[in-house]
Write a structure and sequence with these properties.
The protein is an alpha+beta fold. Helix content is about 50%, strand content about 15%. A four-stranded antiparallel sheet has the order 10-13-12-11, with no helix packed on it. The protein has a three-stranded antiparallel sheet with strand order 1-8-9, with no helix packed on it.
Length: about 350
């Protein structure tokens, strides 16, 4: 028991190494830019002050976003997604997987859960003992189920998901700008030192490596930032980009996409003043998501629409409020087929 605890503690400690490395690089870059470049190298006061002001603005936003990503606790499924006591005892007693699945299917009928495993089974986490909400996955590193899990990032030693995905994207964005500002303002002094137009001083080493490191990080972070902007536009997580979510009627890679503006609003919210700051402003609770097209019964349609703040009446428009108080209109239409009833859910801003 003791060795196992020691091993687990060592693993948790080692997980902080990438975070420590990033912080050492960042604070070295701060010293190199502020002291070695601005104080010792730049001769012009106006140039020095303007560089320092722009640098500190993006340095502050970058550090703020980075540590918000690190310190945000991953959002986990609520207790309502656990099995009721009687069903839980029956599930634990039962040894046959097919019977366990039948039990889960009966329970999930009363829940807003529409995705399944590749084999069509209800997604249940034996570790957390909960039925996984849509877009939720279990993280073996964090040892918990994470709502709208994107991935586990070693550079922040945290899961990126519903609670901190916006912070992570801003961290990448401000990280790219931070590196760009350094590269753009240091390049002329890099060239001067490189071509011997400036006298060799103790600042030369810092200036040369500051430009090279900033340029290298700018390219790598920008690529990652661009990829996540594409994911936001498609309303996909990294997990869903690698493997399309599977609904009751089969896989659909665009199942959660509602158009670019609505996809963007789902993450950043409707209050534009908050878009550029690492404060939570997204829509919803992370447990349920409006889908592009959901195959559900009329009763289940009522449940999920009501949970999203809507009161559906077939073929009618209803003014309602999103979680952040922004008005919108919900249009609910249905088409009957032989197999089932298809309910299409769309949202329009008022």
């Amino acid at each position: 028991m003791a060795p196992s605890y020691v091993v687990k503690s060592c693993k948790k400690l080692l997980n902080w190494i990438p975070v420590v490395f990033i912080n050492l690089v960042v604070f070295w870059s701060y010293y190199a830019y502020v002291v070695e470049l601005c104080v010792y190298t730049i001769p012009n006061d106006a140039e020095r002050i303007s560089y320092l002001v722009v640098f500190h603005v993006f340095f502050f936003l970058f550090i703020w976003s980075y540590w918000k990503t690190i310190l945000s606790t991953p959002a986990c499924p609520s207790n309502s997604f656990g099995l009721p006591k009687a069903e839980k005892e029956q599930y634990e007693r039962e040894q046959r997987p097919e019977v366990q699945q039948e039990l889960l299917k009966k329970v999930v009928l009363e829940m807003p859960v529409y995705t399944r495993t590749a084999g069509g089974a209800v997604r249940y986490c034996d570790f957390c003992q909960v039925i996984k909400p849509d877009r939720c996955h279990h993280c073996s590193t964090c040892e918990t189920c994470v709502l709208k899990m994107d991935h586990h990032c070693p550079w922040v030693n945290n899961c990126v998901g519903f609670s901190n995905y916006k912070f992570f994207v801003l961290f990448l964005g401000y990280g790219s700008i931070y590196c760009l500002v350094i590269s753009a303002t240091v390049v002329q002094y890099f060239i001067k030192f490189w071509t011997k137009k400036l006298t060799d001083t103790h600042a030369k080493f810092h200036i040369l490596f500051l430009f090279l490191v900033a340029a290298m990080f700018f390219i790598s972070i920008l690529c990652l930032f661009s990829y996540h902007l594409w994911l936001i536009g498609q309303n996909r997580t990294t997990n869903e980009a690698m493997r399309a979510p599977i609904f009751r009627n089969g896989p659909d890679k665009n199942g959660f996409s509602l158009g670019f503006s609505r996809n963007f609003a789902e993450l950043f919210g409707d209050r534009k003043i908050l878009w550029l700051f690492p404060v939570f402003s997204g829509l919803g609770d992370g447990h349920t998501f409006v889908t592009r097209l959901v195959h559900i019964d009329p009763e289940q349609a009522n449940q999920i629409l009501q949970q999203n703040g809507k009161i559906p009446v077939d073929g009618e428009n209803h003014a309602s409020l999103l979680d952040n108080g922004v008005p919108h209109t919900v249009v609910v239409t249905s088409e009957k087929s032989v197999a089932d009833q298809i309910v299409s859910v769309t949202m329009e801003s008022v």
